[in-house]
């Protein structure tokens, strides 16, 4: 269970950092197929599904709550070494994914799947440079519906390997506000500020419900795709994964570039690679 909680923390952390894909981390750690199966068969295999989902969700929740401020700080002050660490995690995951397609003939269709999804991530990275203004989340029916819809979009992009849910939130203009709401909610909880808790729940509740709905919706679709074209799907995932480090580095602030920074970044890259090797594969 401890390993699954740690894996969940990696997934949760990936989902709060723009450019890093939680879905990619799931694939890297041998969790993706199992999680999709557990979600889509929750009713028929409730006990077994919950044995997997509970520690993963606990770990993801711990990471989002405890580490959002830390990585906000690290990305703000040490963006190059921090992003290289995530590149190491992603690149270190490739051997586990490549094994999924070993022994299968390379065809034009598989190459096109790779190229199409490689291009998708790069396009998102280029678009993501614009960031987006923080959205209006004042309490009201329209904004509640918007937050629910944004939650669905975020969930679907969080689950798809190689696509960054947090980057999508940034493009929609909701990233800063959602992250701020999480931090403000924790502050209010620590201070027992009931009014503050209620105010932030007005943002987080509809968004969270949308996320849960979106996860179940996309899980069904992904299971269908894998049942019909599994190897093509893995080629698409490989394209997404290969493009992810490029996307991260495209959106990295290089203003602090120096020889020392690059040396430290090589170390953090190696640490990420090592972590991927230990957390990856079958549980």
Report on this model:
The protein has 283 residues and is mainly α. The protein is 78% helix and 0% strand. It has 12 helices and no strands. Helix 5 (79-91) crosses helix 11 (194-250), helix 7 packs across helix 11 (194-250) and helix 8 (141-159) runs antiparallel to helix 9. The longest helix is centred in the C-terminal third of the chain and has 57 residues, at 194-250. The protein is globular. Mean pLDDT is 82; it is low at 129-133.
Which characteristics define this entry?
single chain; 283 residues; mainly alpha; 78% helix; globular
Summarize the structure.
The protein is built from 12 helices and no strands. By secondary structure, the chain is an all-alpha fold.
What is the tally of helical segments?
12
Count the E strands: 0
Order of helices and strands: HHHHHHHHHHHH
Helix content: over 70%
Helix and strand layout, with pairings?
Layout: H1 2-14, H2 22-28, H3 32-40, H4 46-77, H5 79-91, H6 94-98, H7 108-128, H8 141-159, H9 165-172, H10 175-191, H11 194-250, H12 259-279
